[in-house]
Design brief:
The protein is α/β, with parallel strands linked by helices and 379 residues long. It contains 15 helices and 14 strands. The protein folds into two domains: 205 residues, 3-Layer(aba) Sandwich (Rossmann fold); 150 residues, Rossmann fold (3-Layer(aba) Sandwich). α2 crosses α15 and α11 crosses α14.
């Protein structure tokens, strides 16, 4: 059986959860007798670096690094204007995807994103499998401007055409049924796997907390920072934010809270990230909305206690191995951090986390996905 994964997510991410998901699936499906091909000519994604048929470019351009990362009034409007037309690499990758779809050489098409329904008119009767990682665009549709309309329309069109919808959590499956009730019968829940090897030992902790990933909107970062400011200053803890550079507004808030010497941002490889996990007293995950919550498992695998929001899919992933707080209630977070100052309390949560994260395995994800593929009627 031959399955085609397209270019979309590998253009928009240099690294990230969704591109990691498709790359991990491809690696593990091979052992199950399923050949996965990527219709990618040009990409910046580090998970494709060892593929001879992909040309690796520099980091992908996005709003945060556009114009050298400088912030100025009207930047968003100008960015949208300049990025309205697809780039040359997008045009090439899209045409390559179309050519492979039309070739008739593939049994299943599994697009890597739902931003662009370009393939609908070319797919013919090839079975379509779509992974729904979250329903955040639908949940926050009213909070965005007219630019969200195209994305919502694309997602609706793709979900309607799909033969199977893989949901990465029960929570996301429930939301699919809520927003697309007529398609709920197509849904199959298949959890993500864990990409990081388990920490060999529990490294000695330093006075440090860790935050990983995007920080805007529903991620609830600024609210979290305000809640822990007192804790950081009273206990002389630092907060490491692993991700993109701070925005102008974030820098302003850090100064206003008096945290300029205690909060810093860093980025780098998985090896650098795992080191931060292992050093930190706790990993903080204050998000209000998630479709899965991969960083929860990453932290657990590296012997880092998880202090997480009790919203959305996060408790489903963390189970009884995470410390939960209500991100919408002020002062609910600080008391949880105070408990983790006790090394024996930390040890308990570390043990629970190491046990919990082993329930999530890419081989299992691939096996269940292969069952989906083989259950479809192919030519």
């Amino acid at each position: 059986m031959r399955v085609l994964y397209d270019h979309q997510i590998f253009e928009s991410q240099a690294f990230g959860g969704i591109s990691r998901y498709h790359a991990a699936l491809a690696d593990n499906l091979e052992a199950l007798g399923i050949e996965v091909n990527f219709s990618v000519k040009y990409s910046e994604n580090r998970f494709l670096v060892n593929r001879d048929d992909v040309t690796i470019l520099g980091p992908p351009e996005n709003y945060n690094n556009w114009m050298g990362g400088r912030e100025f009034k009207g930047k968003w409007r100008l960015y949208k204007l300049f990025k309205r037309e697809p780039s040359r690499t997008t045009v090439i990758n899209r045409q390559y995807s179309v050519d492979l779809l039309r070739s008739g050489e593939f049994d299943i098409f599994h697009p890597t994103d739902m931003q662009d329904p370009y393939f609908i008119e070319h797919i013919g009767d090839i079975p379509l499998v779509v992974t729904v990682h979250d329903t955040i665009p639908e949940i926050y549709a009213d909070a965005y401007g007219p630019e969200m309309h195209n994305l919502l329309s694309a997602r609706k069109e793709i979900i309607k055409r799909a033969d199977v919808l893989i949901s990465v959590s029960k929570y996301t499956a429930e939301n699919i049924a809520r927003y697309f009730p007529e398609e709920s019968g197509k849904v199959k829940v298949i959890y993500h796997g864990l990409s990081f090897p388990l920490a060999d030992s529990q490294q000695e902790k330093i006075d440090q907390l860790l935050y990983v990933g995007a920080r805007t909107g529903y991620k609830n970062f600024e609210s979290m920072l305000t809640q822990i400011a007192k804790f950081l200053k009273e206990h002389n803890f630092r907060l490491i934010c692993f991700g993109l550079p701070f925005s102008k507004n974030e820098k302003r808030l850090i100064r206003l809270l008096g945290l300029s010497d205690l909060v810093r941002v860093d980025s780098g490889s998985d090896q650098q990230l795992t080191e931060y996990y292992r050093q930190s007293v706790a990993f903080l995950y204050p998000s209000i909305e998630e479709g899965f919550g991969m960083p929860v498992l990453e932290a657990m695998s590296q012997a880092c206690p998880v202090v997480a929001s009790d919203k959305a899919s996060i408790p489903e992933v963390g189970g009884d191995a995470a410390v939960y707080f209500d991100p919408l209630k002020p002062d609910s977070l600080e008391s949880k951090l105070l408990e983790l100052l006790d090394p024996e309390v930390r040890k308990t949560w570390i043990t629970k986390g190491l046990e919990r994260c082993q329930l999530f395995d890419w081989k299992k994800t691939a096996t269940e996905t292969a069952e989906v593929y083989r259950g479809l009627k192919v030519k």
